[in-house]
Amino acid sequence: MRKKIVAGNWKMNTLLKEGMELAKAVEKLEKEKTSDALVIIAPPYTHLSRVKDLIQGVKLSAQNCASEEGGAYTGEVSPDMLKSVGVEYVIIGHSERRAYYGEDDEELNKKTKLALSKGLKPIFCCGEVLEEREGGKLYDVIRQQISVGLKDLSKEEMAEVVIAYEPVWAIGTGVVASPEQAQEMHKFIRGLLVELYDDQVAEDMTILYGGSCKPSNAAELFANPDVDGGLIGGASLKAEDFLGIVNAY
Ligand code: PGA
Fold this sequence. Notes:
Layout: E1 5-9, H1 16-31, E2 38-42, H2 48-52, E3 59-62, H3 79-84, E4 89-92, H4 95-100, H5 105-117, E5 121-126, H6 130-134, H7 138-149, H8 155-158, E6 162-165, H9 179-196, H10 199-204, E7 206-210, H11 215-222, E8 229-232, H12 239-246
Parallel strand pairs: 1-2, 1-8, 2-3, 3-4, 4-5, 5-6, 6-7, 7-8
Bound molecules: 2-phosphoglycolic acid.
């Protein structure tokens, strides 16, 4: 069965105390939520173990992880380390990681496999930049990102993966994809999963939309048959806005 999910990507925002307050506020509002969507938050690494103690209904995600198990990789954080502080999900391949830190599809595939082997659930991101959309390359880009990034996973592993479609031109810009644009791409992704895996994998896959999602536009995005929730940046930094999106379901 496909899960509905609304996940908050805090990015490099909040100091520890602010992050703890935000987590508490999200947990409180989650208890009163009117939808059955699963609520996930992805605070910065430094906050994870403290935030874990403040949440129950809300699930915990990291924003990234290393592609190596452990050892001499200064500055990296391994999937095992994340597991050891109670993290369940990990965002992999966010467009900011791809663009600013040079993470390519092969490396993201390595991270995804390692995360899965350690019992973390990847929230695997894909998305085209504006020139790619305008140049008509958007489907090729998404096909490449998914077919390489999620290469050689078993069906059982695919059942643990969440996909987030985040058109780069919509991230943090205030320009949200139209419900039609989102549905079109989500449908394409589901079709691609039929091709790469099978009907069951495709049917059960949770596919989130991300990019300037707000309480005011969430309902029309989530009303689409292939949109199973959202990955929320800016609006996840205010508990009321974030839960407003959850309750839009
Ligand atoms: P945004 O970011 O909601 O601020 O556009 C979404 C994301 O990057 O996950």
